[in-house]
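This week, study the protein below.
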Amino acid sequence: MEKQDCSRLSGGEKQQVGLLRALMGDEKILLLDEPFSAMSPELELEYTKTLLETTDKTVVMISHNRRDDYAELFDEVITIG
C-alpha cells in the first residue's frame, strides 16, 4: 500500500491512510481535526476506540459531532457553544 496510487480511494479510505501515516510517525502528540468526518458514525466510534487503545501518543481530536460516548473514551472533553 505504501507505493500505491491513492487517488481512487474513497474519502473515508483516504482518512484511514492519513491516520495510519500519523500513527507511524515519531510525534508524541496527534492533533486530529475531523479525522473521521467521511466515515459512518459506527466506523467513527470503532476507529476512535481502536486509536485510543493502541497508541501511547497524546490524542487531541477536534470534532463537530457531539457524541455522548466521547466522555467515556477520552480523559477530557471540552465542548464549545
Summary: The beta strands are 29-33, 58-62. The chain has a mean pLDDT of 84. Residues 29-81 form one domain.
